[in-house]
């Protein structure tokens, strides 16, 4: 996924400023696609140059004018093209895996400490995801009929994130147990 497509997705919902976009990222998809303010502004400029967005300045008295971006027809077509395109598998880059791969010179205690630190961080992340759950997706008949398609799809992403963290925690527990059985 590119940041440009995420921005087109947000602006497809409603026009907004770069500042508003940052808030939406942080509150909506930041848990799996973090972004900084400068990345947003650089991408907004590029999308305007490409004709996918149009910029309107709102006059504000006593403050700088507000730059509001909205999606053009070309931007809507690009978003739809991207939404209907299959995606390549994401590259897995996990620093812990590299550390573990080369950790043989460390003592078992040092390796376990490293893994336990990761456990603590993944538990925090799992708790964060679980706190965001608003509907249960485990049993389809129990899903309220008034849940929007958009909310349901967002909850699917959140459910994936929860399961991924639970799986990572299970693997960490197993890895710690295996290392405890190793001879030094």
From TrEMBL:
Residues 7-80 form the Transcription regulator PadR N-terminal domain. It comes from Ktedonosporobacter rubrisoli. SUPFAM superfamilies: Winged helix' DNA-binding domain. Residues 92-178 form the Transcription regulator PadR C-terminal domain. InterPro entries: Tscrpt_reg_PadR_C, Tscrpt_reg_PadR_N, WH-like_DNA-bd_sf, WH_DNA-bd_sf. Coiled coil: none annotated. The lineage of its organism: Bacteria, Bacillati, Chloroflexota, Ktedonobacteria, Ktedonobacterales. This is PadR family transcriptional regulator. Pfam families: PadR (PF03551), Vir_act_alpha_C (PF10400).
